[in-house]
Description:
It is a single chain. The chain is globular and about 45 Å long. It has strands at residues 3-7, 10-12, 18-25, 33-39, 46-51, 57-59, 67-72, 77-82, 91-99, 102-105, 109-113. By secondary structure, it is mainly beta. The strands form 2 sheets. Strands 2, 4, 5, 6, 9, 10 and 11 form a 7-stranded mixed sheet that branches. A hairpin with a 4-residue loop joins β7 and β8.
Amino acid sequence: QVQLEESGGGLVQPGGSLTLSCAASGVISRLFLMGWYRQAPGKQRELVASITTRGDIVYADSVKGRFTISRDNTKNTMTLQMSSLKPEDTAVYYCYLREILTDYWGQGTQVTVSS
């Protein structure tokens, strides 16, 4: 089955930057959706950004202008460049992939924005 591996999480000060990466393996289909979700303590998991194979992108309103999602279809990798980070961005960030309506999730990487 598909496996997703996230990396890049950590502690960063408010206003700082951080880049998350996700590597997908075991994908058979040429066309698949990828994205980033996050979940803060006591809150529902929410979409941060998603990107299709052709490059169509959706951002959550709370991250527009601050986060940038991208993917490399040859390597099956995806990145999330985060800047101007706020304490409200603190959450576990999950890599997501959908192939033929089957959902796959990474184990998550912690992002903490604090002084």
